[in-house]
Amino acid sequence: PALRRLSRHLLAHYQKGTRPVRDWRTTTNVAIDLMVYAILSVDEKNQVLTTYIWYRQHWTDEFLKWDPAHFDNLTQISLPVESIWVPDILINEFVDVGKSPHVPYVYVSHHGEVQNLKPIQVMTACSLDIYNFPFDVQNCSLTFTSWLHHIRDINLSLWRQPELVKFDRSVFMNQGEWELLYVLSHFQEFSVKSSDSYAEMKFYVVIRRRPLFYTVSLLLPSIFLMVMDIVGFYLPPHSGERVSFKITLLLGYSVFLIIVSDTLPATAVGTPLIGIYFVVCMALLVISLTETILIVRLVHKQDLQPHVPEWVKHLLLERATILLCIRDRKKFSQTRMQSLDTSRQVENNDSTAKLTPYVCEDPRESGAVGGTRSALAFAGRMEGSAALQEVLRETTAIRQLLEKREEFRDVAREWLQVGYVLDVLLFRVYLAAVLAYSITLGTLWSVWRDA
């Protein structure tokens, strides 16, 4: 048969150990091409990209030519790849031998053109930048070069035009986590020594992560918890439910971070921006809880506290109410004046409470104490004065108790108002901090996407 005769004819005296040129000055030109089939894995921790590509290379073998008329017009034949010379084209970024299927044959045409087509699982080192996870774009290079031969022996070129290679997604599996944006190609020469130059063809595989899964599972729960923390400020500050609510939020966020810690990429080089976002959110929750504890401490246990200092009243009950546009600032001012009047009344009442037993006596009787009174009348008057003195003493004690209770209520009311105004002030500062942080984070992501 023609196939056997042609195979024996081509391989009878073939020397696969030497470069297939008749003149050693002739350069063997190897045209290469690749198509990305799938992105198998992106290992951020070890900085390894695993891809599956369809690799093609083409060169001319001057010892594998024949006349088709002598072999039944046969223009093409497949030969074992182990029986002919194959260029030593390798990928510089190789870090491990992948599980690539072995293709044992190559196609040879009657002009001596050899086509080596094979799929390759490529495990290459890649500098992965995870700062913008999960909105990151990775650019990994595949550098094809001859490991031994100089450029005067083996030169490299593209099989297809660079524009066709760039946007070729015809065989790419587009259902995974990563999407292929484009593949750039670039030829260059490099030299180890001044006299030895090598040819290399670089392919830049640019891929982008699909962020929908991470947005739903990471960002949205965190945003919901932060919104609930802001809503928690509308709970009454004098109730204990706010502290319990914020502690529950903080514990829930801690559990959430433990769950998602395995999802975040880990590298020794840098931290993703979303990790910083989670840490800042945790810090904001702690600050919110601290503010709530401070407010609750102010509005409770007022019996152990003195009157609100005048400078605090001036800053919070007058200046801050105007600055914060609180509608009840007139009520705060009136309450402050009432507390001052109450303090003055307490001082006046304390001075008038010192009554003598003779206040209720008639002046005319006091002047006739001499010998006109009998011993019996004098004794009766003394008994009545003692009873009246006891009644006055009890009445004074009750009045002082009521005034003291009213004073405690005034102190409690003052601290409650101070706590309310301080709560509004700290809430607005906290809200401004959250908004500023959100705007900063959005700006950083926008700048990165534009860049």
TrEMBL record:
Keywords: Cell membrane, Disulfide bond, Glycoprotein, Ion channel, Ion transport, Ligand-gated ion channel, Membrane, Postsynaptic cell membrane, Receptor, Signal, Synapse, Transmembrane, Transmembrane helix, Transport. Belongs to the ligand-gated ion channel (TC 1.A.9) family. 5-hydroxytryptamine receptor (TC 1.A.9.2) subfamily. HTR3A sub-subfamily. One of its GO terms (molecular function) is transmembrane signaling receptor activity. It comes from Hylia prasina (green hylia). Its main location: membrane. Forms serotonin (5-hydroxytryptamine/5-HT3)-activated cation-selective channel complexes, which when activated cause fast, depolarizing responses in neurons. Residues 218-440 form the Neurotransmitter-gated ion-channel transmembrane domain. It is found in: Postsynaptic cell membrane. It comes from the Eukaryota. This is 5-hydroxytryptamine receptor 3A. The chain crosses the membrane at residues 212-235, 247-268, 274-296, 425-448. Forms homopentameric as well as heteropentameric serotonin-activated cation-selective channel complexes with HTR3B or HTR3C or HTR3D or HTR3E. The homomeric complex is functional but exhibits low conductance with modified voltage dependence, and decreased agonist and antagonist affinity. Heteropentameric complexes display properties which resemble that of neuronal serotonin-activated channels in vivo. Interacts with RIC3. NCBIfam families: LIC. GO terms for cellular component: postsynaptic membrane. It is a multi-pass membrane protein. It catalyses: K(+)(in) = K(+)(out); Na(+)(in) = Na(+)(out); Mg(2+)(in) = Mg(2+)(out); Ca(2+)(in) = Ca(2+)(out). Gene3D superfamilies: Neurotransmitter-gated ion-channel ligand-binding domain (2.70.170.10), Neurotransmitter-gated ion-channel transmembrane domain (1.20.58.390). Residues 4-211 form the Neurotransmitter-gated ion-channel ligand-binding domain.
